[in-house]
């Protein structure tokens, strides 16, 4: 049994200057003000349209992120409609194979505090349950069950990978919902990690979130 923390990989180079220029070229079509484009104009143009709420213009640029998280989190991610998804399939992946280390990998829940005795007990219950699931999953496969049948006992905590592509407007909407205090702790955890890097590399688009 393998326990890991959630993580992510941005699947492309984020070049804010080039993205802003592309957005400006598209956006100025609305006003036929292409004559105002210069080396310094893109950032100001995009900043202004965001302030005005004209976020449809930033849909012309997209970002692809590979998110490594538990399956419970992906159930929430895929509720965002304006996006493309490719996810690791429990139907076709046989976790008894060597390429998976012949073990199940689970995402460690972020809400069990190491300073709280009740949380320590609850985490141990979780660990014991994950170990039992791994044992029984392997037994099902050994008894001839196909991965698509054995997956019936796999939990939300199972590690999965999902590649997510959204345009910039959709990412902004995603973060507004998923970093909110009312969101599930685990989706807040990974969303804040991704947003922090977006803010660093694309501050014009995401610094206000």
Write structural notes for this entry.
It contains eight helices and six strands. The protein is α+β, with helices and mostly antiparallel strands. The longest helix has 26 residues, at 117-142. It is elongated and about 70 Å long. It starts with a strand and ends with a helix. The mean pLDDT is 96.
Give a quick set of tags describing it.
alpha+beta, 4-stranded antiparallel beta sheet, 6 strands, 209 residues, two-stranded parallel sheet
Q: Summarize this, please?
A:
The chain is of the alpha+beta class. 44% of the residues lie in helices and 15% in strands. It has 8 helices and 6 strands, in the order ββααβαββααβααα.
Principal-axis shape equals: elongated
Low-confidence spans: pLDDT under 50, at least 5 residues? none
What is the average per-residue confidence, as pLDDT, rounded to a whole number? 96
How far is it from the N-terminal to the C-terminal residue, by CA? 37 Å
Instruction: Kindly state the number of beta strands.
Output: 6
Q: Strand fraction band? A: 15-25%
Biggest β-sheet: strands ordered side by side in the sheet = 2-3-6-4
Number of helices: 8
What percentage of residues falls in helices of 4 or more residues?
40-55%
Topology as a string of helices (H) and strands (E): EEHHEHEEHHEHHH
Rg computed from alpha carbons, rounded to a whole number of angstroms: 21 Å
Q: Specify the biggest β-sheet.
A: 4 strands, antiparallel
Q: Which secondary-structure class do the elements indicate?
A: alpha+beta
